[in-house]
Design brief:
By secondary structure, the chain is mainly alpha-helical. It is built from 9 helices and 5 strands. The strands form 2 sheets. Strands 3-5-4 form a 3-stranded antiparallel sheet. Helix 1 packs across helix 4, helix 2 runs antiparallel to helix 3 and helix 6 crosses helix 8. The longest helix is centred in the middle third of the chain and has 30 residues. It is rod-shaped and about 165 Å long.
Length: 247
């Protein structure tokens, strides 16, 4: 059964399209008729083939297909040219079927190439089936294998490459708390109230500052004086206690 699908022409300049299962245009249909009738392609009986072509057009309802109509008109014209009498001995006469034979041979050659390519494609599809090769997942990293000797060598290499530790030299210096207590008592003998700068000089060494601080704390512990600091970092007020004054 031959399927015919026709698309009606649009109001614009769209062409009339004919799709026939089994035939790819008028040349294909004409070549099929030549094969069915088993005639020589170089000596086509135009009248016979033309009748077969028109009959097949009627069967396939191709009366509105432009390309088929053009081929039918060509066959009729060739048929008419073949019927025209020609003078014997006139040189330069050309067979009106020559152009049609040339086109049929070209089309036949093209179809043979297409058939070969389709067969090769079919063989390839049958030989190499489509498949999906799943990529294998990457193996997990191997656990770290390290001997104790290697670990110690690595640690030693890191320690050698690191900076050498800074060594601070500490010089012991004895504090003179008793001497500082004597100084504070002497100041408080002269004045009932004093300040930090009165018992520790401005350019005192760190050990002298620390000795003076310990002396004040020790005397305060003995209730010989009273220390007051109104706010952080303010000067320290030193006030002599009565018990200390009595002593």
């Amino acid at each position: 059964m031959v399927l015919v699908t026709a698309v009606e022409p649009q109001p614009t300049d769209a062409a009339f399209v004919v799709d026939i299962a089994g035939f790819n245009g008028p040349l294909d249909l004409l070549l099929a008729l030549i094969r069915d009738e088993q005639v020589d392609i170089y000596d086509i009986p135009v009248a016979r083939i033309c009748e077969q072509f028109l009959a097949r057009m009627g069967e396939l309802k191709l009366n509105e297909a432009a390309e088929y109509l053009e081929m039918a008109a060509r066959l009729i014209r060739i048929k008419a040219q073949m019927l025209l009498p020609r003078k014997e001995g006139v040189e330069g006469w050309e067979d009106p079927r020559a152009e049609l034979v040339r086109r049929l041979l070209e089309y036949q050659q093209m179809r043979e190439v297409v058939d070969v390519l389709e067969k090769l494609g079919e063989d390839r599809r049958n030989r190499f089936g489509r498949s999906f090769l799943q990529q294998a997942a990457a193996p997990p990293p191997a656990p770290l294998a390290l001997a104790l000797t290697d670990l110690l060598v690595a640690v030693d290499r890191v320690l050698r490459a690191s900076r050498k530790p800074t060594v601070h030299e500490v010089i012991p210096r004895a504090l003179d708390v008793d001497g500082a207590m004597t100084t504070v008592r002497a100041v408080l003998q002269l004045r009932a109230n004093a300040r930090w700068r009165d018992v520790v000089r401005t350019d005192a060494e760190p050990w002298e500052v620390l000795s003076g601080l310990l002396a004040l704390l020790e005397l305060a512990k003995r209730s010989e004086l009273h220390l007051t600091q109104l706010r952080p970092f303010a000067d320290v007020e030193i006030r002599r206690e009565l018990a200390g004054e009595a002593a």
